[in-house]
Amino acid sequence: MNRVIDRRERVYRVFKAFLSEFVRYLNDRSEEGWAILVEGQRDSRALRKLGYGGQVVTVSLLGRSGPWALKGAMKVIILTDLDSEGASLASKYAKKLGREGVVTSLSERKWLKAASRGVFLHIENLGRFAKADDLEWNGVSGGPYGAG
User: Fold this and answer.
1) Is 134 helix (H, G, I), strand (E, B) or coil?
2) Domain covering 2-134 in this structure, CATH number
3) pLDDT along the chain (148 residues), means of 10
């Protein structure tokens, strides 16, 4: 049992460290004029909780408003969920924005997927790491994977 908890703790700490660097990277890209496209408001809130301060656009806003929703950003990081539906949306919007002359990047989504090792599929769940202590996660002992 202790080996399972130790492994979970290590995985949790490594992923939390990755997220810290990842958000720093996203903030750097933001200062270079990049916006982030996410599926919904909960995804946007999760990025904010993690410390992302740049422009975030939701799929629904982009769908309603078109490229105007980007407020002049001509480079977009597509950060849809890491499931098959998110992959489909990422592909769709990469093509759609590309036709509008917007540069897109899917690399960040791939990095996040690789780092999460399939444990986290939804961007909205990443906000749980914002105020997580080493072994406490929203009141659950053992990090985001729960106890035992």
Assistant:
1) coil
2) 3.40.1360.10
3) 69 88 96 97 96 96 90 95 96 95 97 88 89 41 36
